[in-house]
Design brief:
There is one protein chain. With about 675 residues, this protein is an alpha+beta fold. Helix content is about 40%, strand content about 20%. The protein contains 20 helices and 28 strands. The strands form eight sheets. Strands 1, 2, 3, 13, 14 and 15 form a six-stranded parallel beta sheet that branches. About 0% of the residues have low confidence. The chain binds one RNA strand of 77 nucleotides through helix 6, helix 12, helix 15, helix 16 and strand 21.
RNA sequence: GGCGGGAUAGCUCAGUAGGUUAGAGCGUCGGAUUCAUAACCCGGAGGUCAUGAGUUCAAUUCUCAUUCCCGCUACCA
């Protein structure tokens, strides 16, 4: 099963489908799209047959929510973001053979067919469960459409999966007074049928295929897959009650669509078909031929889907579908020491970058490759961006090219001189430079893009050193014959750079190739010593990179600073006042003061503290989710707190809690216990 | 809390199937140079390899515990 030695006839390369509810940012690029594009460009230059497939993931609940919020249709949302994403990828030079979308007709057809066959072959199990139903709209609601009062912070408008006020994750059953976000109607529970893929049945096969057969996968990927398999796989629902997506194509499935994780990876197949239909190619040779090598480029949050679930789907389908040979998942990129976040607008958006930094695609590609999160989360800073541009890309690569071309025009009016009478040192340099194509290529084939780029720069360093060692600007006065050889050798290095930089820096590579009159070179060509023959006329040199000034970086930092400020201002206004309640209703709640007698952490729970409270009559146990904010527990003993005395007891992590301790939630989410300003008798009521 | 990944020079990262002085790039300091976008080239300084134990003749590398960061997942009457 080891693929190390196997020779493949063609490569199918996929990139995680970006979710079309927002634009693409530098985290996506560094983790997925730039490494994938570098890989693909390299393979093409090697003369391999490659298909590079991408597309937008356009189904799922968040898109429908966003549409609801903005008062438009889901299709409007995905049209907008698909447009932005596709265009920005093109401008960055991500060289897809096809970038399509899961709302396409071809995808709907393909995904439906895929489901139908699995269904017909009995690969699913069917289960019925009780779900919330909106009687007015006559449909089942997904978690996100169910709103109610947050059981934790009491905020109105908490969603069935999460309260945005306090950030706690919820299940619809926990919500107080659940009702429909669509109609406002109170919800009822009704049984609904769904189809499940029994992943557990594929466990022995997964073990064999990955744990035995793919020990070469990256540690983060292998480790996570192993832990999933070892802890026992569960059947996973492949359908949902929703009206946005691919309708479930069997009888009795009205109002149901394919679950987005089931539908999205099939998009790789649909998009392949869409392309092949246009070009007259046979799509099956890409997906059903053991001589095709499939590689999925993804981020670490996607490992399970691409290593376990999608392979199980393909395996269940059978019919010769191939499996990925590798899934080089990357870690995450931070921005200025803070997690990138779409909702907090903490990101550098690709489409904005392209607008603000015209012609600087390669700078971004360079920086994100040089600092790619290949083994651990990395940090992007604008200072680093500037340094890498000014001190590496420009100073080593751009500068070397420029010095050579300027000298060639100065000494020889732009005509390449001949290599003659090589010294030992010349030969050593030639040998070294001829080794780079292989060195860099091997690194790329092993997904070590950062190191590969480093080696490319080392070729530039080799050139700079050779030049300094031989000082042609001095020798031209004393030994012009010798200078011809030095310049000729240097020019071959420039030519090599023009070829080998193409996977990483396609725009600059093409610019350089045009300057020295080289076109359509293959990777293997770079192994030849003489790429620019004697007498060849070079075009006028232009600068490949320009210096990035402090002011540019400062402007970007200021922009981020403002986002941070705006976030602080927006995030914390007091919550809207809740619905009016009657005095009688209020009096039903019995709030009292109690004295803390004991306090300890609840085992195996991060957030829970267990209190023993003197309520004036007895000792009662109350569990409260404030462990994060109170670490010195001994200091709490003796303090008085307010608590709800007449809640039904409830079991939390095995401990029965008899009430709820009241605390205030500060704007940063911190919980602060409420304590009477003077000592009072335990058990006295608060009102 | 469970599982996975990570913690190495001022910064961003490599690395060690355990073995004399732990690497690279950038930054910094010094030198040399002027063909080149004040870029290049040479040299120096800079690390108790997160913390604490254990195994070993020997641990940054293996084992265990702890702390912190990231992802998945559980708990917040």
């Amino acid at each position: 099963m080891e693929s190390e030695n196997k020779q493949f006839k063609r490569y199918l390369v996929t990139t995680a489908l970006p979710y079309a509810n927002g634009p693409v940012h530098i985290g996506h690029l560094a983790g997925v799209y730039i490494p994938a594009d570098t890989y693909v460009r390299y393979l093409r230059m090697k003369g391999e047959e490659v298909l590079f497939v991408g597309g937008s993931d356009e189904h799922g609940v968040p898109i429908t929510i966003k549409a609801e919020k903005e008062g438009c249709t889901p299709q409007d949302i995905v049209d907008r973001y698909h447009g932005i994403i596709k265009k920005s990828f093109e401008e960055l030079g991500i060289s897809y053979d096809i970038y399509s979308r899961t709302s396409s007709a071809m995808h709907h057809e393909t995904a439906a067919e895929f489901f139908k066959k699995l269904h017909a072959d009995g690969k699913f199990i069917e289960k019925e469960s009780e779900q919330y139903f909106d009687p007015e709209r006559q449909k089942f609601l997904s978690d996100r459409y169910i709103v109610g009062t947050c059981p934790k912070c009491g905020a109105e408008g908490a969603y069935g999966d999460q309260c945005e006020k306090c950030g706690s994750s919820l299940s619809p059953d926990e919500l107080i007074n659940p009702h429909s976000q669509l109609s406002g109607a109170a919800l009822v529970k009704k049984p609904t049928k769904h189809w499940y893929l029994p992943l557990d049945q594929y466990e022995p096969w997964l073990r064999e295929w990955i744990l035995e057969g793919h020990k070469e996968w990256k540690t983060n990927v292998y480790g996570q897959v192993k832990s999933w398999i070892d802890s026992g796989l569960q059947p996973r629902a492949v359908t949902r009650d929703l009206d946005w997506g691919v309708p479930v194509p069997v009888e009795g499935a009205d109002g149901k669509v394919l679950y987005v994780w089931f539908d999205a990876p099939i998009g790789y197949i649909s998009n392949t078909k869409e392309l092949c239909e246009k070009t007259g190619d046979n799509w099956e040779r890409w997906w059903k031929d053991q001589d095709t090598k499939m590689v999925h480029f993804i981020g670490k949050d996607n490992i399970v889907f691409h290593c376990i679930i999608f392979p199980c789907m393909l395996k269940a389908y059978g019919d010769g579908y191939i499996l990925p040979e590798n899934v080089p998942a990357n870690e995450f990129l931070n921005l200025e020491n803070d997690k990138i976040s779409t909702s907090r607008n903490w990101a550098i958006w690709l489409h904005e970058y392209l607008e603000e930094f015209p012609g600087k695609q390669d700078v971004l590609r360079y920086v994100l490759t040089a600092n790619a999160p290949e083994t651990k989360d990395n940090n992007f800073t604008w200072k680093d961006y500037q340094d890498r541009n000014n001190n590496e890309l420009l100073a080593i690569f751009g500068n070397f090219v420029n010095r050579i071309l300027v000298l060639t025009h100065k000494f020889y009016e732009g005509a390449v001189p001949a290599v003659a009478n090589l010294t030992e040192a010349d030969q050593a340099v030639i040998d070294e430079m001829n080794g780079y194509p292989k060195k860099i290529g091997t690194l790329i084939e092993n997904y070590k893009f950062r190191e590969a780029l480093q080696e490319l720069m080392n070729l530039g360093r080799l050139g700079n050193k050779y030049l300094t060692d031989n000082e042609p600007w001095k020798q031209i006065k004393t030994d012009p014959e010798r200078v011809k050889t030095v310049m000729a050798v240097s020019l071959q290095i420039v030519a090599k750079l023009a070829i080998l930089s193409e996977p990483f820096l396609p725009f600059s590579a093409h610019k350089l190739q045009a300057m020295i009159g080289m076109e359509g070179m293959k990777w293997a060509d770079a192994e030849n010593t003489i790429l620019l023959p004697e007498g060849k006329m070079l075009n006028k040199p232009e600068l490949l990179f320009e210096k990035i000034e402090d002011s540019v970086v400062e402007a970007q930092l200021k922009k981020l600073e403002e986002i941070k400020k705006a976030n602080e201002l927006n995030a914390w206004k007091p919550a809207a006042v809740k619905q009016t309640v009657s005095f009688d209703d209020y009096m039903k709640v019995d709030v009292r003061v109690g004295t803390i007698l004991e306090c300890c952490k609840v085992p195996k729970a991060d957030k829970l503290l267990q209190f023993l409270i003197d309520d004036g009559m007895k000792k009662r146990t109350i569990v409260s989710g404030i462990a994060k904010y109170y670490t010195e527990l001994e200091k709490l003993v003796g303090k008085q707190v307010c608590f709800v005395a007449n809640f039904e007891p409830r079991k939390l992590k095995g401990v029965v809690s008899e009430g709820m301790i009241l605390s205030a939630e500060d704007k940063d989410g911190r919980l602060v216990l409420l304590t009477p300003s003077d000592l009072v008798a335990p058990g006295c009521s608060v009102g």
